[in-house]
Specification:
It is a single chain. This protein is mainly α. The chain has 3 domains: 87 residues, no CATH class; 108 residues, Orthogonal Bundle (Cytochrome Bc1 Complex, Chain D, domain 2), CATH 1.10.760; 93 residues, Cytochrome c-like domain (Cytochrome Bc1 Complex, Chain D, domain 2). The chain starts with a helix and ends with a strand. The radius of gyration is 35 Å and the shape is elongated. The protein has 13 helices and 6 strands.
Length: 313
């Protein structure tokens, strides 16, 4: 904060305190010619009179003491912008002390799980409860409380993983984040196949994962196959099964993160997508990230009797 803002705050505070003190003095003072307290001309039932008496002296004195206390409080604790108080106290320092104490308690709570592999954590009910709680506080905003995602946010409760579903791959996703980019291919495809090129590719993509015998008899899909093999194959592969190293999704399953309508697919191919999974290493730390990653991984991997987990992939 600049000194200009400091002086602004000081002046505003001083004016408020002086204004309150002046108001007390002005309203408590009786002046020549003022009517007596009982001369209000307000009567009820002939013998009930409204008085206009000044506040008791002890009450007014209490207000002055409160103003003096407020001035002392500001000087002691520092209420003048960024100018420190006499005591040296600051809210930032207090926050740092409380945060350090809370971090120490958390560190003690999470110490038993430090460096534990995800399958072992997935077999520990207490670790899973901690992981579920961390997920609810940190990840549910995007992926939902049940981890089933939404349009644009992947479902974490199934066995489809764009960046790989092995324990260390899931942990890396949580720790360091991911950035998935689908380039804009509309202009390129139209240059190769005309104004309907994107529609051709959509028609062919819809056949992936199904029998390819029908492609030859489907004009749109046949045109799309040629365009797909010229552009899309680099990331999604010749058979459309994708590439987890790039985060390129498998196009042969029935899961579409941005929706499977023609309009959604057109938007994806023509204008691209840019999905970002934030890194949580700094926010959660390694151990808490490990716990939440283990909980997410456990949603599609049930632990066996030995404490390892049997995967669905």
């Amino acid at each position: 904060m600049s000194m200009g803002w400091n002086w602004y705050i000081i002046a505003l505070t001083a004016l408020n305190l002086l204004g309150v003190a002046w108001l007390l003095w002005w309203t408590a003072k009786r002046r020549p010619g003022d009517p007596r307290p009982e001369e209000t001309s307000h009567y009820w039932d002939e013998d009930v009179t409204e008085y206009n008496k000044p506040m008791p002296r002890w009450w007014i004195t209490g207000f002055y003491i409160a103003i003096a206390f407020g001035i002392g409080y500001l000087i002691w604790f520092g209420g003048m912008g960024s100018i420190p108080g006499v005591s040296g106290w600051s809210s930032a320092q207090e926050h740092a002390i409380q945060k350090a104490a809370a971090d120490a308690r958390l560190e003690e709570t999470f110490r038993p799980y430090q460096g534990q592999p995800l399958p072992a954590l997935a077999a520990d009910p207490v670790a899973m409860e901690l992981g579920r709680s961390i997920f609810a506080n940190t990840c549910a905003t995007c992926h939902g409380s049940s981890a089933q995602g939404a349009i644009g946010y992947p479902n974490l409760a199934d066995d489809i993983w764009h960046w790989g579903g092995e324990p260390e791959q899931v942990l890396q996703t949580v720790l360091d984040g991911r950035e998935g980019i689908m380039p804009e291919w509309g202009t390129v495809l139209e240059g190769m196949g005309g104004p309907n090129a994107v529609d051709y590719v959509i028609a062919y993509v819809r056949t992936l994962g199904h029998s390819q015998e029908a492609v030859g008899s489907d004009f749109l899909a046949a045109q799309g196959k040629r365009l797909y093999e010229g552009v899309c194959v680099a990331c999604h592969g010749i058979d459309g099964t994708g590439n987890q190293a790039l985060g390129a999704p498998d196009l042969t399953d029935d899961y579409w993160m941005y929706g499977d309508s023609k309009e959604s697919l057109y938007e994806t191919i023509a204008n691209g997508r840019h999905g970002v999974m934030p890194a949580h290493r700094e926010l959660l730390g390694e151990t808490r990230s490990r716990l939440v990653a283990a909980w997410v991984w456990s949603l599609s991997n049930q632990p066996n009797a030995e404490g390892a987990a049997g995967g669905t992939r």
